[in-house]
């Protein structure tokens, strides 16, 4: 009877054509197949092995993790850092005063705080890792693109006297050519307009959230409304009085 294989020990596919095509780095034409015959890259193997282990962790967390709807917003009304101590205080109160009615036991409250603390530590670790992964991917992408561009410049000069090389470079020429100003200008203008509209929309939503938060704070007595400015008294200040 065969035993199930550990997914972390199974050979990983080192074909990077699918991953690179998403970023536009896969070579055009039949040249993409040449990478399949290359020796296994230990860095690629390490990365794909880490991905497999991440999938295992994600599957293990499946029963407890929860998603959020795109328009769902959770507001606590107080800074997050105050929630844990407040819950623990209430847990101690319930233990000391059993007569207080509660739908949750002190143990349940403590367990919830412990889970939040553990999730925060996991979130911090994963967030930092994702930031580093993204930075590494972008820097690697920039490096290989720059190298490819430099090679293309030299190969393009040599292609003037080599017809076969000229044909092989043809699929790449569209990527290295700069768009004419009359073509690029409308695209750039539309992109700038879109960015400006998005920025204005974000500012409007931020102002709306701030107004709602301020109104709620006033209702809770946490903020005293600013008094309306009273008209100046003619008998005070530096102004002259009639007949003075």
Descriptive report:
The protein has helices at 17-22, 42-61, 83-96, 106-158, 163-176, 181-219. The chain has 244 residues and is mainly alpha-helical. Among the domains are: 7-26 and 38-65, no CATH class; 180-222. Helix 3 (83-96) packs antiparallel against helix 4 and helix 4 (106-158) packs across helix 5. The longest helix is centred in the middle third of the chain and has 53 residues, at 106-158. The chain is elongated, with a radius of gyration of 32 Å. The N and C termini lie far apart (112 Å).
Please sum up the structure shown:
This protein is mainly α and 244 residues long. The protein contains 6 helices and no strands. Helix content is 60%, strand content 0%.
Largest sheet, if any?
none
Mean pLDDT reading: 78
The number of distinct β-strands equals 0
What fraction of the residues are assigned to beta strands by DSSP? under 5%
What is the helix/strand order?
A: HHHHHH
Structural class: mainly alpha
Number of helices, where a helix is a run of at least 4 consecutive DSSP H or I residues: 6
Distance between the termini: 112 Å
Radius of gyration: 32 Å
The best one-word shape is elongated
Q: Share of helix among residues? A: 55-70%
Q: Low-confidence stretches at least 5 residues in length (pLDDT < 50)?
A: 1-22, 24-30
Q: Which key features would you list for this structure?
A:
244 residues, single chain, disordered N terminus, mainly alpha
What's the topology here?
Blueprint: H1 17-22, H2 42-61, H3 83-96, H4 106-158, H5 163-176, H6 181-219
């Amino acid at each position: 009877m065969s035993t199930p294989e550990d997914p972390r020990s199974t050979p990983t596919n080192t074909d990077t054509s699918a991953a690179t095509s998403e970023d536009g780095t896969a070579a055009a034409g039949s040249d993409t197949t040449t990478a399949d015959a290359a020796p296994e890259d230990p860095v690629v193997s390490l990365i794909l092995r880490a991905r497999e282990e991440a999938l295992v962790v994600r599957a293990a967390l499946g029963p407890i993790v929860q998603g959020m709807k795109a328009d769902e917003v959770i507001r606590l009304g107080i800074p997050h850092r105050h929630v844990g101590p407040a819950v623990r205080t209430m847990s101690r109160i319930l233990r000391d005063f059993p007569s207080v009615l509660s739908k949750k036991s002190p143990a349940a409250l403590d367990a919830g705080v412990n889970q939040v603390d553990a999730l925060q530590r996991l979130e911090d670790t994963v967030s930092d890792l994702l930031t580093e992964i993204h930075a590494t991917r972008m820097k690697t992408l920039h490096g290989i693109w720059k190298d490819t561009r430099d090679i293309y410049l030299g190969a393009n000069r040599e292609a003037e006297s080599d017809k076969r090389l000229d044909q092989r470079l043809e699929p790449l020429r569209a990527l290295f050519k700069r768009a004419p100003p009359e073509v690029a200008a409308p695209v750039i203008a539309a992109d700038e307009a879109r960015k400006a509209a998005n920025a204005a929309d974000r500012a409007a939503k931020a102002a709306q959230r701030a107004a709602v938060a301020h109104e709620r704070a006033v209702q809770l007595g946490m903020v005293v409304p600013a008094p309306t400015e009273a008209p100046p008294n003619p008998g005070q200040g530096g102004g002259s009085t009639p007949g003075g």
